[in-house]
TrEMBL record:
Iron-sulfur subunit of the cytochrome bc1 complex, an essential component of the respiratory electron transport chain required for ATP synthesis. The bc1 complex catalyzes the oxidation of menaquinol and the reduction of cytochrome c in the respiratory chain. The bc1 complex operates through a Q-cycle mechanism that couples electron transfer to generation of the proton gradient that drives ATP synthesis. It holds the Pfam family QcrA_N. It is a multi-pass membrane protein. Keywords: 2Fe-2S, Cell membrane, Disulfide bond, Electron transport, Iron, Iron-sulfur, Membrane, Metal-binding, Oxidoreductase, Respiratory chain, Transmembrane, Transmembrane helix, Transport. GO terms for cellular component: plasma membrane. Residues 1-20 are annotated as: Disordered. The keyword Lyase does not apply. It comes from Actinomycetospora cinnamomea. This is Cytochrome bc1 complex Rieske iron-sulfur subunit.
């Protein structure tokens, strides 16, 4: 019967013998120990520096250069492209809509080109060996690990990477740019200081805030930004809810501001009129925030910021459809079910001498989900 390579168990050298062995000796030993049979072995370019080799190098480096350029384009777009929301009818909307496709394409193409460069390198420049290896179980002993490392070293030497400066530089540039890209994508959001404006920082104020004391009214959204319809207490039936938005007289001649508050994420407020016989429990310090049976709560869920749009007047429950948090409208919108842990912030409201509802101030706590620095 013909013997198989795996039938012969080679002698394992001592540690001293291993230390004296050359890279080639270790590779040969490793092949025998790992039951690797080399069927054929061929350097792709036995004579270094031929035109064919240079052409192959340029093709490989070309992919890495494309990866580098695409990575740089991604970085520039990520930092400088107009990313802030622009409504479809506003100036600059076209460029805003391209933001996500541009950063997605440039980053995706950079990764694709880097992968193509690695494939091209292994196909065009690495030695063309055909080997067969038997499978082994369990953890490798020291001798196997040493010989495997030697094989990697030898492959690196035979690949000619040390003399292919163009490939080394282009793959270094591509890897570096992509690495920086990943860091920028991961930590770019931390560069901007959200607390720069102190008590007026964006996370602490909403569009219900009035810097100059101008009164902020509650308005409906009729679907047309310029169509301003203010709200009176009698507009809501007992047991009903309406979403309202902030409005100041100074906005009337500024269509872009009228449109802005309708899409601003911290603007929407649920104005709820409880039934007259409902028992109400108020929160400490917010006893006068309501107007009769009218209560105004931020619509932004304190769990993860979804709009809590569903109001069930029989049970006085406000439901967030995202993860089913429930809040009691007659008990300062405290959470009674689901993952939300804080009440919906309440807007203090009153009625002016014309009978229109207005906000007496901004919310007294930040709206929406928790963040590190909030203390309530
Ligand atoms: S966002 Fe409302 S329950 Fe999760």
């Amino acid at each position: 019967m013909q013997s198989h390579p795996s039938d012969a168990v080679p002698r394992v050298p001592s540690d001293e013998e291993l230390a004296r062995m050359s890279t080639e000796d270790l590779v040969r030993l490793g092949n025998r120990l790992d039951d690797i049979e080399i069927v054929s072995e061929r350097d792709r370019f036995p004579v270094p520096g031929t035109r064919a080799e240079k052409r192959a190098e340029r093709q490989v480096a070309g992919w890495f250069i494309l990866a580098t350029l695409s990575g740089i384009a991604f970085l520039v777009a990520f930092i400088a492209w107009p990313w802030e929301y622009v409504a479809p009818f506003e100036e600059g909307a076209f460029w805003y809509t391209l933001y996500t496709p541009v950063i997605g394409f440039t980053f995706g193409f950079a990764v694709f080109a880097l992968g193509m460069g690695v494939i091209a390198y292994s196909k065009k420049l690495l030695p063309e060996d055909l080997t067969i290896q038997q499978r082994h179980d369990g953890r490798s002993p020291e001798v196997d690990r040493r010989t495997a490392a030697a094989r990697l070293v030898q492959t690196g030497q035979r690949s000619g990477l040390t003399r292919r400066k163009m490939v080394v530089r282009s793959v270094g540039a591509a890897g570096g740019v992509l690495g920086v890209g990943v860091l920028v994508a991961a930590f770019g959001g931390f560069i901007k200081n959200p607390w720069k404006e102190g008590p007026n920082s964006p996370l602490l104020v909403t569009d219900w805030h009035s810097e100059d004391g101008e009164r902020v009214y509650l308005r409906r959204n009729t679907g047309v930004a310029e169509d301003v319809v203010l709200v009176r207490p009698g507009d809501l039936e007992p047991g009903s809810m309406e979403t309202v938005y902030p409005f100041k007289e100074s906005m009337r001649t500024h269509p872009e501001e009228l449109a802005h508050v309708l899409k601003s994420p911290d603007s929407p407020v649920m104005l709820i009129r409880l039934r007259p016989n409902v028992t109400v429990i108020k929160r400490e310090g917010q006893q006068d925030f309501n107007y009769g049976t009218l209560f105004a709560y931020s619509k932004i869920c304190t769990h993860m910021g979804c709009p809590t749009s569903l109001y069930e007047d029989q049970t006085n429950r406000i439901l967030c459809p995202c993860h089913q948090s429930q809040f009691l409208a007659n008990e300062y919108a405290k959470p009674i079910f689901g993952p939300a842990a804080r009440p919906l912030p309440q807007l203090p409201i009153a009625v002016d001498d014309q009978g229109y509802l207005y906000a007496r101030s901004d919310f007294i706590e930040p709206v929406g989900p928790a963040f590190w620095e909030r203390n309530s």
